Amino acid sequence: MIAIDYEELKISVNILNTTPTHRLPVELTERKGLGHPDYIADAAAEASSVALSKYYLERFGVILHHNVDKVLVVGGQSNPVFGGGEVLHPIYVIVAGRATEFVNVGGSLVRIPIGTIIVSAVKEWIKRNFRFLDPDRHVVVDYMIRSGSADLVATYEAGAKSVPLANDTSFGVGFAPLTSLERLVVSIEKELNSPRFKNELPEVGEDIKVMGMRTGSKIRVTIAAALISHLIPDPDHYISVKEEIKNRMLDLAVKIAPGFDVEIDVNTADNPKLGAFYLTVTGTSAEHGDDGATGRGNRACGLITPMRRMSLEATAGKNPVSHVGKLYNVLAYRIAEKIVKEIPKVQEAYVELLSQIGKPITKPQIASISLLLENPAEAESARRYAEAIAREEISKITSLTDLIVKEQVQLF
Amino acid sequence: MIAIDYEELKISVNILNTTPTHRLPVELTERKGLGHPDYIADAAAEASSVALSKYYLERFGVILHHNVDKVLVVGGQSNPVFGGGEVLHPIYVIVAGRATEFVNVGGSLVRIPIGTIIVSAVKEWIKRNFRFLDPDRHVVVDYMIRSGSADLVATYEAGAKSVPLANDTSFGVGFAPLTSLERLVVSIEKELNSPRFKNELPEVGEDIKVMGMRTGSKIRVTIAAALISHLIPDPDHYISVKEEIKNRMLDLAVKIAPGFDVEIDVNTADNPKLGAFYLTVTGTSAEHGDDGATGRGNRACGLITPMRRMSLEATAGKNPVSHVGKLYNVLAYRIAEKIVKEIPKVQEAYVELLSQIGKPITKPQIASISLLLENPAEAESARRYAEAIAREEISKITSLTDLIVKEQVQLF
Amino acid sequence: MIAIDYEELKISVNILNTTPTHRLPVELTERKGLGHPDYIADAAAEASSVALSKYYLERFGVILHHNVDKVLVVGGQSNPVFGGGEVLHPIYVIVAGRATEFVNVGGSLVRIPIGTIIVSAVKEWIKRNFRFLDPDRHVVVDYMIRSGSADLVATYEAGAKSVPLANDTSFGVGFAPLTSLERLVVSIEKELNSPRFKNELPEVGEDIKVMGMRTGSKIRVTIAAALISHLIPDPDHYISVKEEIKNRMLDLAVKIAPGFDVEIDVNTADNPKLGAFYLTVTGTSAEHGDDGATGRGNRACGLITPMRRMSLEATAGKNPVSHVGKLYNVLAYRIAEKIVKEIPKVQEAYVELLSQIGKPITKPQIASISLLLENPAEAESARRYAEAIAREEISKITSLTDLIVKEQVQLF
Amino acid sequence: MIAIDYEELKISVNILNTTPTHRLPVELTERKGLGHPDYIADAAAEASSVALSKYYLERFGVILHHNVDKVLVVGGQSNPVFGGGEVLHPIYVIVAGRATEFVNVGGSLVRIPIGTIIVSAVKEWIKRNFRFLDPDRHVVVDYMIRSGSADLVATYEAGAKSVPLANDTSFGVGFAPLTSLERLVVSIEKELNSPRFKNELPEVGEDIKVMGMRTGSKIRVTIAAALISHLIPDPDHYISVKEEIKNRMLDLAVKIAPGFDVEIDVNTADNPKLGAFYLTVTGTSAEHGDDGATGRGNRACGLITPMRRMSLEATAGKNPVSHVGKLYNVLAYRIAEKIVKEIPKVQEAYVELLSQIGKPITKPQIASISLLLENPAEAESARRYAEAIAREEISKITSLTDLIVKEQVQLF
Predict the structure, then answer these.
(1) In C, residues 220-279, which contact D (CB 8 Å cutoff)?
(2) Please, which chains are in contact with D (at least 3 CB pairs closer than 8 A)?
(3) Looking at the partner chain, which of D1, D296, D366 has a beta carbon nearest the beta carbon of C312?
(4) Neighbouring chains of C at 3+ CB pairs within 8 Å?
């Protein structure tokens, strides 16, 4: 271990002497896709944060304090049937958190249209991402936002001039690269929710959950895909859509995970004899009783990775200026990715960052890096290189804010 | 790797060739204590599930379907001042989920008092666990519960007769043992929230968050403890309480983590010059803007462990009969604990369980066990022993249900 | 007095020996117009009832039980400024009540999409009636509806075959004709909210409240009209719009109330020096703190008439089949109107109907009619004629249901 | 008619040449008692206003602006059975309106604990007035209050120094005396809800609605009384309680309305053959689907009087300082009562008061008084006397504020 206190910045780089993930005998990973209730909750939180950030920036030149990282999606009730169906009770989305509502501009208070911003942002996200979920008829979007006190505003402006101060003591965790299994699971969901695929097989809804397990060189992928009831006239059609999904995803697997023996199951809970099919009116299981909450879905790498180091912080909805629960997680993945990209001998990299409340976000309590090397002999140079990458990336952390507001960073 | 398909039960035991956690150069862990908004959300969810389970058991002899694992705690507003203060706006608790509301008993529908059960359960939990948070004046407890369909009830009864069927495809993850750092972090929170401690230092509120970092043999613990405003007349008293916490916890650290160089910081965000103190009227930061959500706090080992394998599933609020997101996480920790207890040569054990929806919960898709051994030569016997333990524990999984309802299992 | 028990129908006709309203020394009346928060609450309730009725009719051939006559409109927050402004927090509309959600059709339960019906109905009403209030961005439409029990459905069907049974013991009250003052107050609001007027003077919002007072031959009308902020660049423009309203309404008064000395005041609470103007972003005061509730606005004659006999029952939102609180009020006005129209010697007619719960709605406990005659000598023939009219109208009460569902009856 | 403009105060006194109400052939009146959902809504609104007023007075010496006159009571769900039963879903009470939340005291903002005040006030009212409705288990009390702007506070203080200014253009209406029918209806409800009666016949719940009809000298009173299920073991007991109510109320009628032929019906919708009884677990029909709203129940005389002049303004929940919708209604009844008490020759008196927004509340636009005299010859002296009474009472209007806050004025 090397602990370097460089201008108060402590970076620890450690060489891990262990088996890389892709060679472990068992590997598990999961992705909750676009229409999954937890994904909706994350997306609603982040859409709210982005909209608030843009509004603040446009009017005041800075992103004011907010944290809307607690969204609850309460499932509705629906009645899907082959060839039709309807929503009986709308989905209920509650955006909870805090946002600066009053800004002192030259002595007079300016009010921010918090409510309109949040309600519109959530609805617009739904409109952009669903084909059959109508945010105005099938969803009630509500919010419970407390405004920051006048003091908060002042403090904020003070901090905004220089490097923002960490708002909390919390950590960010990241790793790289993804294994074949992980890339396959991400790719399957993204493919199934791509415009091209939706165009060719519109029966496939947006709510797609992909569970991947690898044992040795055998991969088993379980896909739960909500199908669209009004586009599927009967059970035969339903079964043919499932077959099509399976076949296309097997084709994809050949490209993404060559050399593996891949098995794909779709909607395994179906039971045609009992009339059990995974049909939805709108494309999401949230329409009938499935609830969602921010922070319960994918990490910033797009996956849930129970066998990897992981943070529990929700990245979605937190302000992208000073909230370390957001920035440090994004940053940790970035550092890990850059390390494995730039240092060829590194097989795997893990990064943990721990903030200290009230200190500049460029000064974590610690940045801990762990490396798996192909050749232990190259440890020393890898260490130095990795540390240099981390130091540089940490120093540029404030540039993430802009990328996040422009929605150019994957958060979940 | 050994993959054993024993009566359809696939158990994989793998020997990990890596550094045990307690010898890693850097270690991070965190516990969100009793009064933390996320803990309240977990506790409200679980109190609701336990109360429903007891009601169902008493009336029908079985625990009927429910899943109330999405609780949102929306922070209130308060006005704490030295020697006083008041709650301005109550905390808002919304319990979301599903629960069987109608039961067909001999042809006639019996209705379950879902609302009264849940509201009472949450309020009683608060009454039992807080001294200054009055659930009837400082909290609005609401719920958004959809009842299961009549079919669900029927299916449920069918399943209840034999081994329950997994309600989902999801995984449970556990490990053992805790490191010194982890035990210290848990112990500090439990000590600070113990009746004895509260008796001696009543100024310490229930909302305690403990962040632990170890670098080599140095441990740094950061405690955020909400202090009770009406018991603290002035800043001097406040500072003396902080000192007392620090000193007592240092004494505790000598017992729990001997041989480490321990530093403890309390309420590091305080800034007396700016009048910034961590004061609360009720003992929880939820009284002023801090929100919470189920599943965002501690894992079943009582900690958030970013550098360990971890599940994202919330254990709280799920039904303890068929919900693998609850049972498999509890079980994974139990298996790991039993392995390290009964097989002395095992330094660390990790367990992952993956369910398959619709199959008996005694038949996971896979049970994956990873062991760190002191002596690699003993791998074979350790494997066999560990596998036997796993097989036995999995076969007894249904006994967990009763323990959970009796609140004898740590879930968060 | 004559009390006639005709086939159990007791009709009392009484000759009032008093001064007709238009000759009283003082007269007061008020109309809350289209965009007033209480009107919105009435309209949201009625739109919900009509939409439910149509859905029930279309699917089942009968209007099933419902009663959604408790709508709460919680005012939002806005920030109107000359030439612009925005909604800060949306208006919150909660539709409360009961509606049949499950229908037993040949042994299987059919579910009604209560939620979608109500949310859509309220939003569509807003879209049809406002130009600048966007139901999807400026309003959160929620509902709290309990479904009727299975028994209710059955009972209902039984009743639907013949004359419906009164659902409650309550009364309906009506009178005719309107006085000049009353007609003027109604006409002013309807004119200001007419498409033609809006076309010519778009600055005038939908929230118009008209208060009328007559002392002797002098009429004073106070109009509170929400003006649209983004259409009004400055105070001068604002004042010119007020002048225009005043002048046009004085012209109208000449036609509606010739022979009266009419004074018209517009937005009397304005105080230009203090910057107080009645500006709104959306056209309704509900956008900034003004709340509304069903049943707190106009009676079925379109007015609040404190010096006339009046029912407190809300007509809006009640089911149009068996709810006497709706039907008897509409019917009472109809009978009164027919009496004054067909019996020229009747100067004024008052009608009260009292139902008895569980009895056919064609059998009120009493129908009480009071007549003011120009010539007392004609009492006997007037009585007989009035009674005959009442008897006929009561016997045709079930025809009102259809008219109400087609929105051809004024309810508020 | 005499129109007197006395110091800007216009009082019109008119002699009505008509039949007094008690001699009309038909008379109808109704009282919604203590536990009726509309009464609960009124009481919750007023309890909130009184609690706010007291808090403001205690801290600031003046009652600050508030208006919480829109309460929605959403019925719960319950399951009453002979000898038992339970609440399934709590009643939901939402207090909507506005209240001053920030007060500028010497340059620093003091916050008012609006939420705690309102929630506590409503719950305490329930505790004081119900025996079996537990506000903490059977009711969810919520609120949607917007705070007044900082300007409002300032304006208010300015007004508080002298006579308050009318906050709106609205009217108050009152009359006196009550007829025998009216007194009987009020007396029956008050008797049934008296501590003595509850002590003797505890089976009678708090939700009592009394409908009274008089035709000639025949009075028919229909009582709907919610009975308490757990105190009534079987239908026989139920029927005996109904008999007891009937007999006792007939005794009361002999005292209150001697000389009338009184018939009393209790719970006429009961149908023992179909198992239909009016049973409740808690004493109010709000426990099972019956909703309530402020302003939909009794007028300030304690009755709904469809055949009398009546205001639609809710008195409950409005601030008792400047809200004419509250003060003018109370005052109108007071003036009418004083007139009939002090001027023996006046048979009936009606009073209407119309405010003008922004003017002192002691200066209504008009005070209109109508008198029925036994002897028309005494008109002139009656007029002068009545006018003097009105003038004096109007000048003392600010004294009502204190009486209202002390709950010494009947409002509904």
Answers:
(1) 220, 222, 224, 268-269, 271
(2) B, C
(3) D296
(4) A, D
Going by C-alpha positions, the residue among D282, D115, A44, D175 that lies closest to residue C309 is D175
Say whether pLDDT at C31 is over 90.
Answer: yes
Write down the pLDDT at residue D288: 93
Contacts of A136 in chain C (CB under 8 A): 123, 135-136
Contact flag B368-A309 (C-beta cutoff 8 Å): no
pLDDT mean over A23-32: 96
- The CATH architecture that domain D180-282 belongs to is 2-Layer Sandwich (3.30)
Q: Taking the model in full, what pTM does it have? A: 0.94
Q: Do B140 and D123 touch (CB under 8 A)?
A: no
Which pLDDT band, with edges at 50, 70 and 90, does B366 fall under?
Answer: very high
* CATH architecture of the domain with residue range A180-284: 2-Layer Sandwich (3.30)
CATH code matching the domain that covers C2-24+168-178+296-405, chosen among 1.10.8.470, 3.30.565.10, 3.40.50.720, 3.30.300.280: 3.30.300.280
Mean pLDDT of C298-310: 96
- Chain C residues whose CB is inside 8 A of the D218 CB are none
Asked whether the predicted pLDDT for residue A358 surpasses 90, the reply is no
CATH 3.30.300.340 location in chain C: 180-291
> Any chain A CB within 8 A of the CB of C81?
no
Contact B108, B60 (CB under 8 A): no
Positions of CATH 3.30.300.10 in chain C: 37-160
Please work out, in degrees rounded to the nearest 5, the angle formed at the alpha carbon of residue C159 by the alpha carbons of C153 and C162. Answer: 150
Which of residues 112 through 141 in chain D touch B, CB cutoff 8 A? 112-116, 119-120, 123, 135-138, 140-141
* CATH topology assigned to domain C37-160: GMP Synthetase; Chain A, domain 3 (3.30.300)
CB-based contact (8 Å) between A88 and chain C? yes
CA of D401 to nearest chain C CA: how many angstroms apart? 23
- Interchain CB distance below 8 Å, D136 and B137: no
Nearest C-alpha of chain A: how many angstroms from B356?
Answer: 9
Mean pLDDT of the B308-321 span: 96
Q: How far apart are CA D285 and CA D290, in angstroms?
A: 6
What CATH architecture does domain C180-291 belong to? 2-Layer Sandwich (3.30)
Question: Superfamily assignment of D2-21+168-178+296-405 in CATH?
Answer: S-adenosylmethionine synthetase, C-terminal domain (3.30.300.280)
Q: Given C89, C94, C309, which is nearest D306 (Cβ)?
A: C309
Nearest-CA distance B339 → chain A (Å): 19
- Residues of each domain in chain D carrying CATH 3.30.300.280: 2-21+168-178+296-405
Which H/E stretch holds residue C391?
A: helix C379-395
Residue range(s) occupied by CATH 3.30.300.280 in chain C: 2-24+168-178+296-405
SS3 labels along chain A = CEEEEECCEEEEEEEECCCCHHHCCEEEEEEECCCCHHHHHHHHHHHHHHHHHHHHHHHHCCCCCEEEEEEEEECCEEEEECCEEEEEECEEEEEEEEECCEEEECCEEEECCHHHHHHHHHHHHHHHHCCCCCCCCCEEEEEEEEECCHHHHHHHHHHHCCCCECCCCCEEEEEECCCHHHHHHHHHHHHHCCHHHHHHCCCEEEEEEEEEEEECCEEEEEEEEEEEHHHCCCHHHHHHHHHHHHHHHHHHHHHHCCCCEEEEEECCCCEHHHCECCEECCCCHHHHCCCEECCCCCCCCCCECCCCCCCCCCCCCECCCCCHHHHHHHHHHHHHHHHHHHCCCEEEEEEEEECCCCCECCCCCEEEEEEEECCHHHHHHHHHHHHHHHHHHHHCCHHHHHHHHCCCCCCC
